[in-house]
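Reminder to self: tokens first, then the designed residues, so the page reads top to bottom the way the pipeline ran.
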């Protein structure tokens, strides 16, 4: 995943996903992964696509709604996995790879 969010292409304005649809995507992935975020927020962020707090609050950048579904899913999966594993260790990377493979199969 790119660290700097400005490296990805922008979708046309008509392709922006509504916030409630995006939150439904997050909830669907949370169910698949077996986690329950305490809160899901979408707001403008300057440097990150998303963040996960230690109390289960997920915050996603508003610009993520303009990205293709594959990019949105990758960020969603990444943040939800932090509800299971707070670091980016070997197990985290293995789970991320496995869920990304599932995402590719479902497309």
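Designed residues (107 positions):
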């Amino acid at each position: 995943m790119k660290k700097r969010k400005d490296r990805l292409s922008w979708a046309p304005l008509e392709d922006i996903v509504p916030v409630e649809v995006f939150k439904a995507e997050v909830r669907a992935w949370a169910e698949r992964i077996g986690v329950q975020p305490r809160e899901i927020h979408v707001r403008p962020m300057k440097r990150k696509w998303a963040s996960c707090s230690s109390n289960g609050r997920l915050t996603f950048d508003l610009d993520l709604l303009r990205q293709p579904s594959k990019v949105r899913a990758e960020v969603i999966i990444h943040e939800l996995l932090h509800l299971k594993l707070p670091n980016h260790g070997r197990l985290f990377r293995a789970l991320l790879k496995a869920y990304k493979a599932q995402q590719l199969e479902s497309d």
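Strands lie at 39-43, 50-52, 57-61.
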